[in-house]
Design goal:
The complex is a heterodimer of chains A (468) and B (207).
Chain A lengths: L5 H9 E4 L5 E4 L2 E4 L5 H9 L10 E4 L16 H17 L2 E3 L9 H7 L8 E4 L13 E4 L2 H10 L1 E4 L3 E8 L8 H12 L7 E6 L1 H4 L3 H9 L8 E3 L4 H7 L8 H12 L11 E6 L6 E3 L7 E3 L12 H14 L14 E4 L1 H4 L2 H11 L9 E4 L4 H9 L2 H8 L2 E2 L20 E4 L15 E4 L2 H10 L11
Parallel strand pairs in A: 3-4, 3-6, 4-5, 6-7, 9-10, 9-12, 10-11, 15-16, 15-18, 16-17, 18-19
Antiparallel strand pairs in A: 1-2, 2-8, 13-14
Helix pairs in contact in A: 2-5, 6-8, 13-15, 13-16
Chain B lengths: L13 E8 L7 H4 L19 H7 L15 E4 L11 H9 L3 E4 L4 H10 L3 E3 L2 H9 L7 E5 L4 E3 L4 E3 L4 H9 L5 H5 L2 H10 L1 H5 L5
Parallel strand pairs in B: 1-2, 2-3, 3-4
Antiparallel strand pairs in B: 1-5, 5-6, 6-7
The chains are: A alpha/beta (468), B alpha/beta (207).
Chain lengths: 468, 207
């Protein structure tokens, strides 16, 4: 059993009681809600005649269902309009702070909370969304929950949960040029598999992780869940603190000093005990692209899609399914596979640094005429900053469509969808069957820079050829 | 859809029923319930959309469409079932279709806790036993009786030792899987906890 890791410390600090069944009752420091997984929870509160216990500790935004072409109200999609109206009504009724469209602070919940300074080290953070693990980049313990647990957090600010084991993933050396956090996390998931993280929190550490910016760290923690780990985190450091400083909801003045002192005390001890430790060499990671139907099915850009006989019996079953669905051949090169749609956005890679990198690749270049390309900023703040820097113009000049903030084609709950068996190069997080809105649509996950390169060439390409 | 849906309530000690087998590892919650069906403010009509895209692809040959499975209540799956999105809509859709318990090689964490929270026991068996059940072509006739007290599944010719997290098993036996009331009992402890969390004091949410 792990001891003296950041996870142990934060968990113990938030433990309210041991429940009769044996699981722990854990206090949730920050609760984030959105329109998709909260309405039934508010409904259940009503049925049980309960109130929101700490309305100040829940913050709402709208992201999953929002259209990205025209956000004027009412939305064209009646169901989407009904969902945003329900959230507005619930927030108003329960006095929950809601960052709505046009507030300047709306966006994907996992982009918004960090940029507002809501996400802070040492907190527990829960949200009815599996990518809540993103917030672990700040040294918080953050995890996705279902709607019944959203109800529990609203009613009690606590949930019943079993303590997770802790696996340290130590990344030596540093990423080479043209290789990004997305490549590293895809590589990690490929190495460990998509179910290795079940029952674990992942602690990412080592020189390669320390080197990463806060936004890159969020990309890593975001995809912990794709490796099966409900929670992923990184010990906070000076980068963490300076990112938070002066944000809207960051502690101010004497509170800042107090906060800083406490945050600096929060990290895994040098001699802490982990349930498992994995080491890997980040300098060996190549730009990485998925070829299958799970985020673990990926290869480096210069590699071939594996042959069935190279895979373990367990991986073989899903690989066979993937070959059938994707219509790719075992042994085929991933490079040069034609793509029809290019999507830059999502809670994994829809932040300003992602847009900067992609824009740098796209500057003075044109998107292939066979490709539909669009970029969806992660939040209104990201969109405004991108406009200030002129990135929107670079995207538009290259042939990318510039859209309004939201989750968009990461999960295709709005009208941004693949059609038929289109192949998309996507900076999002899931390549599941049907994930991007068409039951036969095919998704290749990669970094935003790699999506930009694919858009220019109309096929999977090595972005390093574009970067001098 | 079948008879009117009645949600489980209180203690869950025993589940009897016919098995339905779904073969495949890493079956994610997007497949269990595609995102377009998440555009709803309640879970009521999700049952008919369970595995919608997979079912349409298989044109009536999906296990959830076979006539012989229409009264099944125990789902048999392989490993990492329910991975991906945290959407509780996935177990809600399974439950509204008629599933009352799931036996598999392994389950994804969030899916597992969602199932517990709505009263669907998820139990595990070694890969070998699952494959044996799934290989059995006559499994349309496999009726199991799950006994949570003793963690056993029995049929005419079978007796299988099931694994389940002890905390989950106890929650079912005590009828405390719907956790809200139990959590609320500790209201004073919750309020006390607030006094000891450093950041509640210095946080500046509404500045």
């Amino acid at each position: 059993m792990s001891q003296d890791t950041l996870f142990d410390k934060v968990w113990d600090l938030h433990k309210v009681s041991k429940l009769p069944g044996g699981s722990d009752q854990i206090f949730i420091g920050l609760h984030l809600i959105h329109e998709v997984t909260s309405p039934q929870a508010f409904g259940a509160l009503k049925d049980k005649k309960l109130k929101v216990k700490f309305p100040d500790r829940t913050v709402a935004t709208v992201d999953h269902i929002v259209p990205t072409d025209n956000q004027s109200r009412p939305f064209k999609d009646n169901l989407a309009e009904q969902m945003i109206e329900t959230l507005e009504k619930n927030c108003l009724e329960h006095k929950i702070r809601f960052f709505n469209i046009g507030s300047g602070n709306q966006g994907i919940v996992h982009v918004v909370a960090p940029e507002l300074g809501l996400t802070q080290p040492g907190m527990t953070i829960a949200c009815g969304d599996s990518h809540t693990s993103t917030h672990g980049a700040f040294g918080s313990i953050a995890f996705g929950i279902g709607t019944s647990q959203v109800r529990d957090v609203l009613a009690t600010q606590t949930i019943a949960m079993n303590k997770l084991k802790v696996r340290q993933i130590w990344c030596d050396n540093k990423l080479s040029k043209g290789v990004y956090a997305k490549d590293l996390v895809l590589h990690i998931i490929n190495e460990l598999g998509v179910k290795a993280g079940v029952g674990f929190a992942y602690e990412f550490g080592g020189p390669a992780i320390e080197e990463l910016s806060m936004e890159e760290r969020m990309t890593i923690c975001n995809m912990s869940i794709e490796g099966g780990a409900r929670c992923g985190y990184i010990n906070p450091d000076e980068k963490t603190f300076s990112y938070i400083k002066n944000k809207l909801c960051a502690p101010k003045n004497k509170h800042w000093d107090k906060a800083l002192k406490w945050w600096k005390s929060l990290k895994s001890d040098e001699n802490s005990i982990y349930d498992d430790v994995i080491k890997l060499d980040a300098s060996k990671v190549e730009p990485t692209v998925t070829w299958g139907i799970t985020p673990g099915q990926s290869v480096g850009i210069n590699q071939q899609i594996p042959l069935l006989e190279e895979l373990s019996p367990n991986d073989k079953l899903v690989a066979e399914e993937a070959f059938e669905y994707m219509s790719f051949e075992p042994g085929q090169s991933i490079k040069d596979i034609p793509v029809e749609v290019c999507f830059i956005g999502s809670c994994t890679n829809g932040r300003i640094s992602d847009l900067r990198i992609a824009a740098k690749v796209l500057k003075d270049k044109k998107v292939s005429k066979n490709v539909k390309a669009f970029v969806v900023p992660g939040s209104e703040k990201v969109a405004n900053e991108a406009k200030r820097e002129g990135l929107d113009q670079i995207f538009k000049d290259s042939g990318f469509q510039w859209r309004e903030p939201g989750c968009s084609m990461c999960l295709a709950m709005n009208s941004d969808k693949l059609i038929g068996n289109q192949v998309s190069a996507s900076s999002s997080n899931r390549n599941f069957k049907g994930r991007q809105g068409s039951p036969s649509g095919r998704t290749l996950l990669m970094s935003p820079a790699m999506v930009a390169a694919a858009a220019i060439n109309g096929k999977v390409s090595d972005v390093r050829e574009f970067i001098k | 859809m079948k008879s009117k849906f009645i949600p489980p309530i209180g203690k869950i000690t025993q589940i009897k029923g016919q098995c339905i087998s779904l073969i495949g590892n890493d079956i994610d919650t997007d497949r269990i319930i595609p995102a377009r069906f998440l555009k709803c403010v309640n879970f009521d009509s999700l049952g008919e959309s369970v595995f919608k895209d997979d079912r349409e692809t298989l044109k009536g040959k999906h296990p959830f469409d076979l006539e012989e499975n229409k009264n099944a209540t125990i789902l048999i799956v392989n490993s990492n079932f329910g991975c991906g999105s945290s959407r509780e809509h996935a177990p809600q859709a399974l439950m509204r279709w008629g599933i009352k318990a799931i036996i598999g090689e392994s389950f994804a964490d969030i899916f597992y806790s969602n199932c517990i929270a709505i009263g669907i026991p998820c139990l595990t068996l070694p890969k070998k036993s699952i494959l044996e059940i799934q290989k059995n072509k006559d499994n349309k006739f496999l009726f199991l009786e799950i006994d949570l007290k003793n963690s056993l599944a029995k049929s005419k010719n079978l007796s299988l030792k099931l694994e389940i997290k002890e905390s989950s098993r106890k929650m079912f036996l005590l009828g405390e899987w719907d956790a809200t009331a139990t959590l609320l009992e500790n209201e004073s402890l919750i309020e006390n906890k607030c006094k000891y969390l450093p950041y509640l004091e210095f946080n500046n949410y509404f500045s």
